[in-house]
Amino acid sequence: MAYKKSSPMLFFLLSLATFCSHAQTGLNTRVPQGGEILFNGSRQMLDEKWTYWDGPRLAAQLPIKWEIQADPAAPGNVVNSFDAASVNGLYGAADIVTKKKYRDFRLHVEFYIANKGGNSGVYLQNRYEIQVLDGDATTHGMAAIINEKSAPYCLYNGLQTWNAYDIIFRAARFDKPGKLIEKALMTMYFNGVKIYSNEHINKVWGGSNSGIDGGNDNGNGITGQPGGIKLQSEGHHVLYRNIWIKELELNNSNTDI
Questions:
Q1: Domains in the chain, please, with CATH?
Q2: Model confidence pLDDT, tens digit, residues 200-213
């Protein structure tokens, strides 16, 4: 069937093609033009781009003890967040963070929880945790904006299966005297499905052992310094692969782009 240039169907198909070419999300999504690969499965990249977060509870010593291992479900290598220093849930004892710091960005992370109750977390700017936790659908559970917003647990692919977070993040904004005028903002896809659209993040949770500004005014004293992407170690076997980031300049208060 031929469509005229002005056909609504043709316009729809062209719009769909444009959307698909610019908005891929979910498993195996490749780094877009202008993006940066943060972890590709190699020990070299892990050591080159990541380090232990030097927080008040740090108990691990470089080199990073997170093990590079074969992907249990596909070809290639992954990194295991288990670190002996963080056993018994000592978050902050062996978390790893990118050496480079970021402001506004799009982030892609894929994770695999090996055992029931496996726990980790993805931190935006080393401040705001997006939870990785098997078996919990609350505001402290899987894909939650920690302690603030719960996610649809049905989107979780389950144990021993890969899952993906795609996050567009806009950092908190401050006026010239340094007063907070807008809280951090984010849109997020969980396994290719949008679960948050322009959600503000109210504070840093977990205290000073959690991340930047966690010890400032009970997490309310957010500052304007950029921060790295952090992955949490809590003594569980949570695997990561295909991590990339693209820096953005989001001048408008909108992450649903």
A1: 32-248 (2.60.120.560)
A2: 999 999 999 999 99
